[in-house]
Known about the structure:
The chain is of the alpha+beta class.
Amino acid sequence: MKLGRWGEDIAEKYLKKKGYLIVERNFRCRLGEIDIIARDGADLVFVEVKTRQNQSYGLPCEAINAAKVRHIKRTAVYYMTGCAMEYQDVRLDVIEILTQEGKTYLHHIENITG
């Protein structure tokens, strides 16, 4: 199994355990992809999952720069224009997964756009 897919599986299990309802995985459109779309109560949450096997390029969350956030936001807007769901708030979360020396670390960063 590819590392990215493995990380998304771990993130999905984690979110379900926290009570999130998974709406969709790997949403793709002409603007890009969103790893996980979920509901957290009345909130619609777009989740970017970053998985790494080491820190040679930094922490996984450090790969989320301003350009990546804009890209995810555009894709999220595209998704919302085509869905009939009602929601109160929308947010963008990042789940970083780092696996080193046989251990897996997960860090959930909620609402990265403030």
